[in-house]
Specification:
single chain, about 210 residues, mainly alpha, two-stranded antiparallel sheet, 11 helices, about 70% helix, elongated
């Protein structure tokens, strides 16, 4: 069962409609089957990428595109697979790249040399797909924890920096502060009600600082 995706096995029948279990499974057998289902989901786009890449080389783009359309493949899946195919199977295997890693390498980088360099970095630094995306954007290895800290998130507990970050994000949706003052009266009253606890706390903190002078 190890090198196949949900293979036909004794007491297990698979069709285009689903899977039927006709024998008693122990927990390890059941868990192994569940693991294979997970692997199918994780590898689907990479497999589609390799199938379509072979087809384009062997039969040409038009034939492959027609086949994808006839078989009613989702356009988004087909497009992602096309990008993933820019990172070949050998690279994905050598550098332990998921389909998400490969998609980011294919969509964010233009040259094979750059893809190779960042693929090596994924393996060396054990980057998640999200960390790879952000690292390419910043030009250096960037961890999710670093991004959480810079946006004010820490250990899942919102910090005061996070409050400021979201406040500024909200405020930027307006042209300027005068635009806020021109909102309808009920909307301005709602804003004031929401800000009141913050205003009260700010006043208390300011007073505590003044009292210690």
């Amino acid at each position: 069962m190890k090198n196949q995706l949900l293979p036909q096995a004794d007491g297990i029948s698979i069709s285009e409609y689903g899977l039927e279990i006709n024998r008693v499974l122990n927990f390890e057998d059941w868990k192994s089957l569940l693991s294979e289902a997970s692997r199918v989901k994780r590898t689907y786009l990479s497999i589609l990428a390799d199938i379509t890449a072979y087809g384009r080389t062997k039969f040409g783009d038009e034939a492959v595109n027609d086949a994808l359309e006839q078989l009613e493949f989702d356009l988004q899946d087909a497009t992602k697979a096309e990008v993933i195919s820019l990172v070949n199977l050998d690279q994905r295997t050598r550098y332990n790249l998921t389909s998400e890693h490969a998609y980011i390498l294919g969509s964010k980088l233009d040259s094979p040399e750059e893809r190779e360099k960042w693929a090596q970095t994924v393996l060396k630094e054990k980057l998640t797909a999200y960390e790879l995306k952000k690292s390419i954007e910043t030009g250096e290895v960037t961890r999710k924890s670093d991004l959480d800290e810079s946006s004010g998130r820490s250990d899942g507990i919102p910090s005061i920096q996070s409050v400021r970050f979201h406040w500024e994000k909200w405020e930027r949706q307006f042209k300027d502060r005068n635009a806020i003052l021109k909102l309808a009266v009920p909307e301005r009253r709602k804003i004031l009600d929401m800000l009141h606890p913050i205003i009260e706390l700010a006043a208390l903190v300011e007073k505590s600082l003044a009292d210690k002078k």
